[in-house]
# Entry
Amino acid sequence: MLSRSYPALTDDPKLLAFLGEQRGKTRFLAATPNALLAAPMIIQTSQPVMAVGGFFGNDPVMAVDAFAEKIEQGEVRFVVLSANRRTRDFERWVRTHGKPVDPDLWRSLPPDPRRSIVLYDLSRGHSAD
# Structure
């Protein structure tokens, strides 16, 4: 559990509002590499958020190819990645195929260099930039 002095960056009201407004008809509000990033979004919005790598991000819950199919099927548009996390296949794929969304559009909490997050748009048109 996170303390009040160390809020979850995915609990940012501006991020949650942005995702809600921009997600369109996708099934998932967003995807993350782990449940630690997904949980605050789920709790605050009651919307489904995909934790691709399980609780800590170390479990192969979904292969990258299966995730890419979810993108193609329009089930997911946005991915939140931790900027300081060790790069795995999922993160590498997102960074290659997605486009970072301007933080001014979705961040209201001050950035924390020790645990910053990046929001990626995986839509073909990248209309959220």
